[in-house]
Write a sequence for this structure.
């Protein structure tokens, strides 16, 4: 095979020409990270840790948050070394090969469908609690703005994430302060639990840091200022850790482990009073909405990339792909096949393994065959010991998940 007909050159010849992306501001980039991460996961981790307790959850939030940030920075460097604007499956195809591309695309599919299914289920439960609507009608009302912004594209997603994420931070701050001032709040509840059940909490926690998928999409928005991409990732992940810690801390300190509901804001709001019930559940709906936009938008553009459908702004093709992204999760949510927390748990298991391995391989390939040399590059975080720790941790959690599903090891809730 000649130099001009290598697999890499053939792939580049078939890459779609990405639509010119509208520029994102730094705040919009940070908001995309926070909005994508703060979704169904933040509502479920208190319930998922109801046997293990808050301290094991805090341990995983710190560790998984750090490791996920590292892998996101791997993806960021790879995108900065690549002239074309490729999604994760496209980066895997170029730098790992066809098998890697399919595995990455499968990870995107599983994680996105699991997440969007959980959002459909959770939004229906929340609107039922708030207004007495049927869960299916509640999910349908949630679906309209969720899918509508996806149709409008990256800039609309960035702006929507920015304004709603700011609102979420304000609501969380008010609810946390109200929790700390409540006379029934007990700090000792944070010490309850059993560390033997800590391992299953890992996979739901891993799902909470799901923003690896949107790094390539952010790179399109930061094409005119690429040095801001890693900064936005680090700031966004730090804010994510803070919010993911404060919500279960408040819910558990207020209610105790035994009283946590599957969608945490329902029990949280009821314990604080009617005003808080509405505030907490409006926050929950906003969290699901912003995460839906982030993951759904990434899923949509990955489909365009993987099947080389051309410009993702083409109206008819965009509608067709949007239906593929949005309708199956709605159907799964009311099929009775999967619960809210289990949808997140098993999505976290599968996608976690892929996302522990692929960013490492993509970065190695990009450093060998990338077209550009970026001013910013990962440094100490590429140490082989750190990379081995990431891979082994996620593989071990996947083995545990399979054995617990078969009944050989204890489940987490």
């Amino acid at each position: 095979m000649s130099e001009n007909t290598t697999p890499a050159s053939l792939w580049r010849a078939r890459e779609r020409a990405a639509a010119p992306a509208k520029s994102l501001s730094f705040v919009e980039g940070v908001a995309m990270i926070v909005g994508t991460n703060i979704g169904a996961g933040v509502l479920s981790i208190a319930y998922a840790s109801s046997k293990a307790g808050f301290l094991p959850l805090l341990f995983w939030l710190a560790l998984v948050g750090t490791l996920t940030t590292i892998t996101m920075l791997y993806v960021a460097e790879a995108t900065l070394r690549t002239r074309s604007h490729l999604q994760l499956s496209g980066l895997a195809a170029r730098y790992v090969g066809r098998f890697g591309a399919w595995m990455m695309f499968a990870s995107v599919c599983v994680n996105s469908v699991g997440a969007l299914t959980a959002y459909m289920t959770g939004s229906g439960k929340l609107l039922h609690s708030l207004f007495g609507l049927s869960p299916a009608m509640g999910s349908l009302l949630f679906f309209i703005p969720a899918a509508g912004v996806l149709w409008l594209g990256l800039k609309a997603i960035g702006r929507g994430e920015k304004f709603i994420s700011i609102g979420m931070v304000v609501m969380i701050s008010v609810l946390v302060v109200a929790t700390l001032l409540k006379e029934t709040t007990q700090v000792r509840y944070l010490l309850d639990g059993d560390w033997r059940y800590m391992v299953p909490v890992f996979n739901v926690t891993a799902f909470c840091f799901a923003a690896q998928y949107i790094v390539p999409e952010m790179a399109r928005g930061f094409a005119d200022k690429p040095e801001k991409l890693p900064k936005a990732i680090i700031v966004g992940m730090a804010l994510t850790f803070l919010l993911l810690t404060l919500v279960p801390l408040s819910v558990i300190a207020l209610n105790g482990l035994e009283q946590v509901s599957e969608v945490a804001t329902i029990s949280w709001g009821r314990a604080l009073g009617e005003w808080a019930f509405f505030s907490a559940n409006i926050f929950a709906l906003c969290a699901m909405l912003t995460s839906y936009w982030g993951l759904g938008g990434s899923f949509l553009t990955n489909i365009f990339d993987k099947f080389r459908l051309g410009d993702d702004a083409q109206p008819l093709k965009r509608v067709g792909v949007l239906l593929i992204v949005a309708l199956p999760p709605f159907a799964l949510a009311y099929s009775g096949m999967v619960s809210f927390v289990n949808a997140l748990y098993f999505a976290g298991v599968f996608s976690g393994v892929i996302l522990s391995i692929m960013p490492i391989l993509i970065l190695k390939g990009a450093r060998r065959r990338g077209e550009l040399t970026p001013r910013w590059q990962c440094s100490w975080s590429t140490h082989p010991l750190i990379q081995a720790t990431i891979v082994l941790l996620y593989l071990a959690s996947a083995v545990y998940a399979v054995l617990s599903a078969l009944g050989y090891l204890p489940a987490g809730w």
The chain has one domain: 22-405. The chain has a mean pLDDT of 85. The CA atoms of residues 89 and 306 lie 6 Å apart. The two ends are 55 Å apart (CA to CA).
